[in-house]
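Quick one:
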Amino acid sequence: MYLHPLMAGLPPAEREALAECSRPRSYKRNEVLLAAGDTTDQIYCVASGLLRVVTPGHAEGSEMTTELIGPNDFFFDLSIREDRYRTKQTLIATLPSSVFLVPIAKMRGLCVRRPEVALGLLGLTMKRMNVLRDQFRRISVLPAEDLVLRVLHELTRLAPIGPGGYDKRITQSVIASYSGLSREMVNKIMRAMEIRGLVRRDEDGVHVAEDFVATDFA
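Output:
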């Protein structure tokens, strides 16, 4: 049974109770877990795979990926003030994913009994907010190539395939949606990076040059 690191220090009885109310689900690539406007009473905990959070754009049919959620991370309303809420975002499996659904009510009760869990969730929430803020800042100030390079670097961490590589099933459309660029622009940039030796592809994944992966992107 998968156990999130945040819960690893709980007493056995608490862990068992949490396991009993959690529901494991498997999602195919590009499958929608939760659509904008849906009501949910669950927290989505990623055991494996990769999810993305999509916000509808102003133009009809447009969208923007605001977050990538990898293993040991959660998707939930940032406040968890109620036992259920209506989401304004869509949650999609970017890769085949194993996800555990935990009732919000159970998690809220656990937070009351175990302040360390509440503090851990608060830390994850603050991290998500910082990542989201930094992503929007980068989109507003960085050149297109730098944006793409930073997204590729993040993918080597979230969906690694060997040293400095990421899963090739992550499409350029997803990269474009997350970087705020068009797919055509991302394709042009990545082709240029391949010519320059910054990126190479093989049967397993897309690999980014080691000197680039080692760069500090804080």
